[in-house]
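Quick one, probably user error.
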């Protein structure tokens, strides 16, 4: 078994971010709307340095929005990218405020979809996890005081039906059409 070195927490999602930036640039070139939601920052003071007198010291806000808003072919997608070093997707990686954002987004109607693009095993495996499926599991986990064994994360077998590439949109669209009963595609939705 080959062990990969652990990446720092700060850089863990960098590969995923760069890949998504490239894919979304291609989506934009194809006429789709792609907007990166910036991380909100809070000013905590000024930096007393000679190099940059008066420079602001900032920290990221704790409750940032999901990463992306994408509008394509009549659907509006709210997307967050999550990176995991191993093959399990941990539900604790989704903060409550993002779960609430996904719920509110999908309550706007059938053309409003949300989900997680999970990058697992250092990016070797990608999976589109639609909130219409993942949300139920997340809220059950969130409501439990002590999660039962096997309920705090998704196993590789649970993630496998949702596998995709960084080019997540075709898979997400196909799955949305399957949910709506408008497709005979190749994706097996594990509802």
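Nope, works fine. Designed sequence:
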């Amino acid at each position: 078994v080959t062990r990969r070195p652990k990446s720092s927490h700060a850089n863990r999602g960098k590969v995923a971010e760069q890949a998504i930036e490239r894919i979304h640039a291609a989506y934009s070139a194809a006429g789709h709307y792609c907007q990166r939601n910036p991380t909100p920052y809070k000013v905590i003071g000024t930096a007393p340095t000679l190099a940059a007198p008066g420079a602001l010291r900032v920290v990221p806000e704790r409750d940032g929005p999901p990463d992306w808003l994408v509008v394509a072919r009549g659907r509006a997608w709210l997307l967050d990218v999550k990176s995991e070093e191993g093959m399990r997707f941990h539900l604790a990686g989704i903060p409550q405020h993002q779960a609430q954002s996904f719920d509110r987004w999908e309550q706007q109607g059938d053309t409003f979809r949300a989900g997680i693009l999970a990058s697992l095993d250092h990016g070797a495996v990608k999976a589109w996890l639609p909130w219409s499926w993942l949300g139920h599991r997340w809220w059950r986990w969130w409501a439990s005081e002590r999660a039962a064994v096997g309920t705090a994360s998704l196993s590789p077998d649970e993630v496998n039906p949702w596998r995709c590439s960084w080019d997540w949109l075709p898979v997400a669209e196909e799955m949305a059409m399957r949910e709506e009963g408008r497709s005979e595609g190749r994706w097996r939705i594990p509802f």
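The helical segments are 14-29, 96-106, 131-143, 156-159, 169-179.
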